[in-house]
Design brief:
globular; disordered N terminus; 10 strands; 2 domains; single chain; about 15% strand; about 375 residues; 5-stranded parallel beta sheet; 14 helices; alpha/beta
Length: about 375
């Protein structure tokens, strides 16, 4: 889609995964430049008119893997901004239940390749039940673009590494933009509020770039995690959605068992797994939830966990509990996942390097799962 990436060479980087992580500021810039007008309006070119968008009463997001995790983040923002109920379903499970597609339901199918078999099957089922559909994909002329009623292309450029990084970020920012477009169509945000969110989005490329300049710092916690065989990721609300993605990246690339839990749920059984030195990666990007997250961190620390913390603004209530801490730039809390996932991607990358795994081509995995 016009983005000038060279996808067939890792260039000066040792792996495609690192190259693609480092391209993320440009992905954000390209996506925002395409989608935001000079007067701060969002125009995604979905093929659906604002009048139609305003008429929907429910949103259904279907996706698999990393795209599913993006959908979970999107749900939080879209519900807040557009005041519309959003459900997020695993496409691989969707057609095995009894999905209820109500009148005025819009289905959003997310697939990096546009060829994910389970997502296509779920899209077809939603359409058969009368839903209008929009696809979010990185692949022009893919099957999903031909079958959905509307299409939003992500501008990630070629992604070679099996473990998705920049495509995930492109999906996140696209969902944020879609939420703003819905909010304007439904008149649930005023122009001042939309402009504030747009300003925060436009600051993200520079903020992501500043985090990437600190990439090598992640080698330190990666060395700790690489020595073990388990790691736990904790977060609440949006942070839990990001924790799921972080744990998946660690599993995919380093073959370490990474498990994500909603922080409050960790007390309901999983805390029994904590032993001396077990790594726990705690995300606390939401100011309103930091105190609750820190309470769980205190519990795991008292049981001997080694804690890596990620939080904005050098939050002392979080950093004081950590063996290793990374402070994030300040942004709108809803957009913190875009910043929080960067150190998690780098953590997975450097852990895989420390363990000597096939970073770009992990065992048993393919880039696009095209078998049902």
């Amino acid at each position: 889609m016009g983005i000038g990436y060279s996808g067939n060479t890792a260039s000066e980087y040792p792996h495609f995964m690192l190259k693609e992580i480092m391209e993320q500021p440009r992905v954000l810039e390209e996506t925002l430049a395409r989608s935001i007008t000079p007067d701060k309006k969002v125009e995604l070119g979905t093929g659906l008119k604002n009048e139609e968008l305003a008429g929907y009463r429910r949103l259904l997001i279907i996706a698999c893997g990393t795209a599913y995790h993006a959908g979970l983040v999107g749900k939080h923002f879209i519900e807040k901004a557009a005041h519309i109920p959003v459900e997020v379903e695993l496409a691989s499970e969707f057609r095995y239940g009894q999905p209820l597609i109500e009148q005025k339901t819009l289905t959003v199918a997310i697939s990096q390749s546009g060829e994910t078999a389970d997502t296509l099957a779920a899209l077809r089922l939603a359409q058969a039940k009368g839903s209008r559909t929009v696809a979010i994909t990185n692949a022009v002329d893919s099957t999903i673009t031909r079958e959905a009623h509307g299409v939003i292309y992500t501008l990630a450029g070629p992604e070679v590494s099996v473990a998705s990084t920049k495509a995930y970020l492109a999906q996140l920012v696209t969902l944020y933009l879609f939420g703003l477009q819905l909010a304007r169509a439904r008149e649930t945000l005023n122009e001042r509020e939309i402009s504030r969110y747009v300003d925060a989005l436009e600051a993200l490329p520079g903020q992501v770039g500043s985090l990437l300049q600190r990439a090598r710092e992640l080698k330190e916690p990666a060395a700790v995690i690489a020595r073990g065989s388990h790691a736990y990721f904790l977060g609440r609300a949006l942070d839990y959605a990001v924790a799921l993605e972080g744990s998946l990246k660690l599993k995919e690339t380093s073959y370490i068992h990474g498990e994500a839990y909603a922080a409050g749920e960790f007390r309901h059984g999983p805390i029994a797994l904590i032993e001396e030195g077990i790594p726990v990666i705690a995300l606390a990007t939401q100011p309103s939830l930091a105190e609750k997250t820190s309470a769980v961190m205190k519990e795991v620390k008292s049981r001997g966990a080694w804690i890596m913390g990620i939080s904005p603004g050098g939050n002392n209530s979080i950093s004081s509990l950590c063996n290793w801490f990374l402070d994030l730039p300040e942004t709108e809390p809803e957009f913190a996942p875009i910043l929080a996932v960067i150190p998690l991607q780098l953590l997975a990358y450097y852990t895989a390097c420390a363990r000597g795994t096939a970073v770009d081509t992990p065992r048993h995995l393919v880039k696009s799962v095209q078998d049902k």
